[in-house]
Amino acid sequence: MIEQNFIRLFEDAFRKYWDLPAYSNYGEDVTLTYADVASKVAKLHLLFEQCQIKKGDRIALIGRNNANWAIAYIGTVTYGAIIVPILQDFNANDVHHITNHSEARLLFASDSNWENLEEEKLTTVEAVFSLTNFNLLTYVRRTDAEGNELLPPFDESQLKHDFINSLFKAKFPHGFFRDHVRYIDKDNKELVSYNYTSGTTGFSKGVMTSGNALAGNITFAIGTGIIKEGYRMISFLPLAHSYGCAFEFLSATCLGCHIHFIGKTPSPKILLGAFSQVRPHVIFLVPLIIEKIYKKQIQPMIAKPTIRWVLRIPFLDQTILNTIRKRLINAFGGEFMQLVCGGAPLNAEVEDFLQKIKFPYTVGYGMTECAPLISFSPADQFIPKSSGKVIPVMEVKIQDADSITGIGEICVRGENVMDGYYKNQEATDSIFDKEGWLHTGDLGMVDADGNVFIRGRSKSMILGASGQNIYPEEIEAKLNNMPFVMESLVIENQGRLYALVYPDYEAVDMEKLDQAQLEKVMEENRLALNNIVASYESVAKIKLYPNEFEKTPKKSIKRYLYATAFSNGQ
């Protein structure tokens, strides 16, 4: 059990960092101090009392990253209820299902998300509150099996903002001070959240996460200095996903950081503007972001004939590389200590280049079921192509490792591991073995120093005609670096490999290519690809795909949606 209590971490943080800036919504002028946040959390606790919320009740939360999302989360867990974060991009049917499956009594929702929901399909929700200002959006009187009202028959005005403010003033007539920050006593072994996954397999399951698992991630961030007191942070990864939640929000809050929440879709253009303005001290992102920046800003530069020529000359090449390194560091704000990639492996070509220019980056490994961290090394200790070292509170073993390559399924156990899937014992039993090892479904190896190397998903691995293991992600990484390819997906059909390609239409338009010319380029890409992969990895055909592939929050392609794209080899 982790020594530090999850709830006490927040109680201590609010008292310690009382006067420091805490939360800002990027693009807005208002900044909340830790005192302001603590005050708003206290008001939410009064609201929950009005709603007769009990310890262990579920409260659902959906919306884009913003300060009120964070306040609703902290208000829920420090009251003793269980938070159910829902990804804002889930469709309405999924949101209905998750709130009902989790038996959420309250729902906090952004106005745009609420507009898409059908009130009558939220069968357990008793009240809905706006994330804009915590005002009441709707109140539904529910009854139990005997027909008794679950809430006493009081006026709905007693759940509204003005009434809660009057309760707050009556409870703290002389003002709200740091000594008033006292939260529920809750053991780390108790559950604090249900995170519903959106994985590459298409099945959404409620991951039951304890305070211990989240405290394990937070205390690791504190102890290793990934995040330090008072850091400026940008939160743009989905807060309902465990990666962004644990590090851009929870750990940062416990260390008195100033967090700038980006509520818009984090395109490279928006992010680069935010990096320049905020100048964050550490950046957490998924590889797709840095790969897009590399492809748009760096690749065209180093592809110029004169630059290519200079890069082949010793000593002269270092001048160019230093210039590129400085430009890239400045693009990310210029003051970050390291850039942390997670959620998926980094493209090999991009990683080789980052190593060449001595860029301060690192790659970690985790999953929602581990809240999320499994392995990590700081940038100055990071081994290229790895996903860092297994962290101290976790164990990793390789199941059924290949006798030659050492590659097998990665299995984990330790403090960060979930308690199981909510109301889904079958799925829980299928992922845990009798010794308590969680089978991740990821393929990889661990070296003698504890560094984890990921090769792909066991469910996406393809068995070649002669028994070779083919990892489509590795082929896709090579194809993605070729002209006019934005992203790709390699699929097996009837013993042959095919590739779906979503083209870089911006580049296509700039070069004024028509359909026939684009198809010709893709055929040239296919031939070039087959020259650099093993013979059993050769791609038989490339098919253009008109839309960006649908992805999980970690930006992994939902492969199952495209499994039949090449039926009969067409």
Could you provide a short overview of the structure?
This protein has 17 helices and 26 strands. Strand 10, helix 8 and strand 11 form a beta-alpha-beta unit.
Strand content: 15-25%
**How many domains comprise the coordinates?**
3
> What's the CATH C level of the largest domain?
Alpha Beta
- Indicate the radius of gyration in whole angstroms: 25 Å
Across the major sheet, the strand order is 4-3-5-6-7
Specify the helix fraction band.
Answer: 25-40%
Calculate the terminal CA-CA distance, rounded to whole Å.
54 Å
Question: Would you mind describing this structure in some detail?
Answer:
There is one protein chain. The chain is α/β, with parallel strands linked by helices. It folds into three domains: 6-13 and 25-211, 3-Layer(aba) Sandwich (Rossmann fold); 282-334 and 337-457, 3-Layer(aba) Sandwich (Rossmann fold); 462-569, 2-Layer Sandwich (GMP Synthetase, Chain A, domain 3), CATH 3.30.300.30. The chain is built from 17 helices and 26 strands. Helix 2 crosses helix 6 (161-171) and helix 7 (211-224) packs across helix 8. The radius of gyration is 25 Å and the shape is globular.
Give the SSE layout.
Elements lengths: L5 H11 L4 E5 L5 E3 H17 L7 E5 L4 H13 L2 E5 L5 H10 L2 E6 L1 H5 L11 E4 L5 E4 L21 H11 L19 E6 L9 E5 H14 L7 E4 L6 H13 L3 E4 L6 H11 L3 E4 L1 H16 L2 H6 L5 H16 L6 E4 L6 H9 L4 E3 L1 E2 L6 E3 L18 E6 L8 E7 L5 E2 L3 H7 L6 E9 L5 E6 L4 E2 L5 E2 L1 H8 L5 E9 L2 E8 L1 H7 L3 H18 L6 E6 L26
Parallel strand pairs: 1-11, 3-4, 3-5, 5-6, 10-11, 12-13, 13-14, 25-26
Antiparallel strand pairs: 1-2, 6-7, 8-9, 9-19, 15-16, 17-18, 18-20, 20-21, 22-23, 24-25
Helix pairs in contact: 2-3, 2-6, 7-8
